[in-house]
Amino acid sequence: MCGIIGYVGGKPAVPFLLEGLRRMEYRGYDSAGVAVLHDGALGDCRAAGKIARLEAALNTTPVTGSCGIGHTRWATHGPPVERNAHPHRSQDGTVAVVHNGIIENANALRVLLQGKGYQFRSDTDTEVVAHLVQELMNGSLEEAVLAALREVEGTYGLAIVSSRDPGKIVAARKGSPLLVGIGDGEHFLASDASAILAHTRQVVYLHDGDVAVIEAGGYRVLDASAAPRTPKVDRIEWDQAAIERGGYPHFMLKEIFEQPQTVENTMRGRLIVEDGTSKLGGLNLSHEQLMAIDNVIITACGTSWHSALIGEMMIEEWCRLPVEVEYASEFRYKNPIVGPNTLCIVISQSGETADTLAAMREAKRRGARTLGLVNVVGSTIAREDDGGVYLHAGPEIGVASTKAFTSQVVALALFALKLARKRGMSVTRGMEIARALHALPAQIQDVLDRSEQVEHIAEEFKRAPNFLYLGRGANFPVALEGALKLKEISYIHAEGYPAAEMKHGPIALIDEMMPVVFVAPHDAVFDKVVSNIQEVKARKGTVIAITSRGEPALDGLVDYEFRIPETVDLLMPVLASVPLQLLAYYIAVKRGSNVDQPRNLAKSVTVE
Ligand code: F6R
């Protein structure tokens, strides 16, 4: 998704802007650009495609100056061509704007501005902001921006510079993250902390409605009514090495192999094995409130939605509470039944997904208490939820989510275990689950130590045009997640299905050309899954089975087998998902895909 960067200080801005844009490449983008103020004039440079092309264009037509903004664009309005790349300039060229988000009334504003003689050069919604600021510029840049924002509807992270008020960047946030980095005689702006981490760890996260004025010698934050606000300065604790590849060929592989550690980190200081429960400091739910919960809604998107399906089974099975899982994009426009004792769990790696954030706000508006399971510290969902459980999985850079998923499942298990123990689960059963959780990191390591077996299977199937993934119970969401991983990075069509549903339609697809991945560890529904495998074999399908022990019932039925260690049924997904992540990764690499930045995908989907 789009990235914003800004610099104002004593050094040349362009090298800093390019470095910051590169650090945000992982978010996905299709064009890039910069605009820099120099001697009271604005220079800019934009290019479709990767940052290397922007850099080449800058070598041909250099842009100098020490106050500038930059952007990586992920196309929403208009194709990814140079004229649509940011920054966008006002009609008279004195204002340059970069923008994340969507201006919803752009068409109406465009007509209005055209009526005043403004000519549009791009297909973007952003260009209206540049013209509007020019139109309203009557004093300082921040006054013009504040006036322009009164006309604008929609979501934005904005960075604006003007040659009529040089030496400053004006930033504004509504629904799209932005932070100010504090330096010595220089200040920074970014939509993503990783872009400026090499230069400062002191940051101010802007709130919705904030406008920031950033200059070399200082910064000011104004609230929506233009009154100065004293912002909280946060310190970023992430290690720069943690967001670099650490010797792995791709971030995705690094993140898959980090899972013993990341799952451990999710549980650290929280799991109390001897009492069969967990301690979660950030819940902000009293014993009475936990006991009063009538029902739970879990909302999320994509991979996080898959972990929600597993959380549903844990809470229903262990706590005996009714749970509904909703796609955040659907929930936000429904008329959901939410009572005062509804707990709404919101799951998001980034904490910035637009639909998930909107769903959380809708649940709050209707009176539910919200609990965020979020990875990125300080993200919008983490700041706005009523209580939270951070995943502590560390920065996830690969666009395809891997380690966040296993940490989400573990965080859901910790929460469900705590709630279950309060609501009547025996200590013996609690200890059984807690011991199983405790064993997971070593068990994941055992799976990873045999990754070459998965690579061998990937070699066999790298040319398959279709895949079917089947599982039952807690392993049905694993099948969905396995299929999603494969399709998003290898572009192979893949579907996940509950194994027994196959005979209600997808069975028609099965022939000797169709690889079918069965997630079939030894659990309560194993015998049922064996029958489903027989149905596939009877139609000459090729079976790849993720199993958990030598099963005589599978002899002669499966073509390829990968064994995972055993654990309690509802924790199997943590182990079963790892070989599927590896399968997707190796197939994608063998097909020559750009694994960390798959086409059309963005790491953090901050538009609706
Ligand atoms: C898949 C993937 C996406 C995200 C989804 C939600 O690999 O990464 O499906 O899971 O966009 O993102 P978060 O969890 O950041 O809200």
Explain what you see.
The structure is a single chain. Strands 3-2-4-1-10-9-11-15 form an eight-stranded antiparallel β-sheet, with helices on one face. The chain has a seven-stranded antiparallel β-sheet with strand order 5-6-7-8-12-13-14, with helices on one face. Strands 19-18-20-21-22 form a five-stranded parallel β-sheet, with helices on both faces. Helix 16 links the parallel strand 23 and strand 24. The chain has three domains: 3-236, Aminohydrolase, N-terminal nucleophile (Ntn) domain (Glutamine Phosphoribosylpyrophosphate, subunit 1, domain 1); 246-445, 3-Layer(aba) Sandwich (Rossmann fold); 451-590, 3-Layer(aba) Sandwich (Rossmann fold), CATH 3.40.50.10490. The chain is built from 18 helices and 27 strands. The longest helix has 23 residues, at 427-449. The protein has 608 residues and is of the alpha/beta class. Helix 4 (127-136) packs across helix 5 and helix 16 (475-490) packs parallel to helix 18 (572-590). Fructose -6-phosphate binds next to helix 9 and helix 16.
Q: Which bin fits the share of residues in helices?
A: 25-40%
The major sheet is characterized as: 8 strands, antiparallel
Low-confidence stretches: none
Strand share of the residues?
A: 15-25%
Structural class: alpha/beta
The CATH architecture name of the largest domain reads: 4-Layer Sandwich
- Give, in spatial order, the strands making up the sheet with the most strands: 3-2-4-1-10-9-11-15
Bound small molecules, deduplicated: fructose -6-phosphate
The CATH topology of the largest domain turns out to be Glutamine Phosphoribosylpyrophosphate, subunit 1, domain 1
Based on DSSP secondary structure assignment, what is the total number of beta strands? 27
Number of domains: 3
Shape: globular
Please identify the top-level CATH class of the largest domain: Alpha Beta
Name of the CATH homologous superfamily of the largest domain: Aminohydrolase, N-terminal nucleophile (Ntn) domain
Integer-rounded radius of gyration: 25 Å
What does the average pLDDT come to? Answer: 93
